[in-house]
Automatic annotation (TrEMBL), chains A, B:
Keyword entries, A-Z: DNA-binding
SUPFAM superfamilies, alphabetized: Putative DNA-binding domain
Protein name, as recorded: MerR family transcriptional regulator
SMART domains, per the entry: HTH_MERR (SM00422)
Domain HTH merR-type: 5-73
Species in which this protein is naturally found: Levilactobacillus tangyuanensis
A Pfam family assignment: MerR_1
Length: 139, 139
DNA sequence: AAACACCTTCGAGTGTACTGTAAGGCAAGA
DNA sequence: TCTTGCCTTACAGTACACTCGAAGGTGTTT
């Protein structure tokens, strides 16, 4: 049984990207498409998996340029596995650092929300260590 | 003892923004500055705290437009506290959702790194539940 | 006197990742 | 036949948040 083939419109809906974006990614060398006798693009399950993966990478914060580089290395074969691993490791480190930073900022925001609640209830009573720093942000 | 006053250049270094950005934020209504007799901007500790706070808000993912709205509400007084609280709560929810999503993408990336390591060591042995899904991304 | 830091308005440039349009053409289905 | 969906190249437009430069000015410091 031959694998199902999807034309760009159907494929776009499947992977959640626009046809514009799919052609754009192809221009950029991130994805490949096969063509039928009329030159019309078609995609298979394999392409769904690949697009799924690059969306995961993008979701971690990887940029198109980095993705391009990654794809280029991948095309060069197994000898570049070490380098690819290092790329992913770096992306991972950066993403984790950004998440921590964002969580720190969120702590301040949470504290402000709490402060609003207390102010509304006229029952301000706070003795956390964090308190001194945070008080500076309240009028 | 009068509070120290900072001109824009010094202040920019203190808060980690460029003088361009400070004037831009002022144009946008995010910050205010006092002026000396010659019309030269100066800032005080109070402004350091305020800029610190808006940088925390920005750090959670809040956009300039939202920040503008927040500042406008703040200027309207305590009657808008409820609305401000809701704004912050929404930003918090969005930020937490984005963090979770990013962590999910990171899990895939981590798995790929692990897969590279195993491939390099020729000892692939993996029996996690997650495994079936993730295998789809490896060539 | 020259250098320096600041002031103004206004508009152009930067980077990222798309998103869309124009203008022309092909092939299959109702 | 007409519509729909696809194809191409090439370029303009969008959103966001700056970032910078021009061109003219003031006041303080060396």
């Amino acid at each position: 049984m031959a694998e199902k083939q999807y034309r760009i419109g159907e494929f776009a809906k499947l992977v959640g990207l626009s046809t514009y974006t799919l052609r754009y990614y192809e221009d950029q060398g991130l994805i490949l498409s096969q063509r039928d006798d009329n030159g019309v693009r078609f995609y298979t399950e394999h392409d769904i998996r690949w697009v799924g993966f690059i969306l995961h990478l993008k979701g971690t914060g990887m940029r198109l340029n980095e993705l391009k580089r990654y794809v280029k290395l991948r095309a060069e074969g197994d000898s570049t596995i070490g380098e690819r691993r290092e790329m992913l490791q770096q992306i991972k480190n950066e993403a984790e650092a950004e998440i921590s930073e964002r969580q720190m900022h969120l702590k301040v925001l949470e504290h402000k929300i709490k402060w609003y609640d207390e102010k509304q209830a006229h029952t301000i009573d706070d003795s956390e260590t964090f308190h001194d720093y945070l008080q500076r942000f309240h009028d």
